[in-house]
Write a structure and sequence with these properties.
The chain is an all-alpha fold. It has one domain: Up-down Bundle (Glutathione S-transferase Yfyf (Class Pi), Chain A, domain 2). Helix content is 80%, strand content 0%. Helix 3 runs parallel beside helix 6. It is flat, with a radius of gyration of 21 Å. Pfam families: STAT_alpha. Keywords: SH2 domain. GO terms for molecular function: DNA-binding transcription factor activity. This is STAT6 protein.
Length: 177
């Protein structure tokens, strides 16, 4: 982790030097940076969904008795799972909302570029990257929603309705915009 921190600070210093020298980077650089941020967030979200699945499977294995070889990612203590699962799910929902915001921001940029194209500005009409982002986010959304519904008994009567409301808001805002 120390090595990562050192490399990160060096790269940030280099980026600052480049920005100072050139005062701006090409639009393609910013777009690529945004794509990488989204891809990283999506991968982190997919990892969270797999962690939730593993934690749930581990909890079922503990309740059922001896586990087959799949339960390798069990939490160390049987009492830890009920507290960890809601926390993990809330973190995943938060990351889902962040990814949704990134997509909505990109959609707004695309809409603005489309408006400026009416005045003669250069406009990239390709919607494939936006569509791919939306589809991959919705796919992870449904996986996470499925895990939450499967763990509904463990979440309790007060947390589940709030989570369902947040899920509905994510999906409706993506569809509406």
């Amino acid at each position: 982790l120390l090595l990562v921190a050192v490399v990160k600070s060096i790269l940030e210093g280099e980026k600052a030097a480049v920005l100072k020298r050139d005062h701006h980077l090409p639009l393609s650089f910013h777009r690529r940076q945004e794509e990488l941020k989204f891809a990283l967030g999506l991968q982190r979200l997919q990892h969270r969904v797999r962690e939730i699945q593993a934690l749930r499977d581990g909890g079922q294995c503990r309740a059922a008795g001896p586990c087959r070889g799949d339960g390798a990612m069990q939490s160390p203590t049987a009492g830890a799972a009920p507290q960890e699962l809601p926390t993990l799910i809330l973190e995943a929902v938060k990351e889902l909302e962040v990814a949704k915001q990134q997509i909505l921001k990109r959609i707004q940029i695309w809409k603005r570029q489309q408006q400026l194209a009416g005045n003669g500005a250069i406009f990239e009409e390709n919607l494939a990257p936006l569509q791919k982002r939306c589809e991959s986010l919705v796919e992870v959304y449904f996986q996470l929603h499925q895990q939450v519904m499967a763990a509904s008994a463990e979440l309790g009567p007060e947390l589940l309705p709030r989570l369902q409301e947040r899920f509905n808001e994510v999906l409706s805002s993506l569809v509406k915009r």
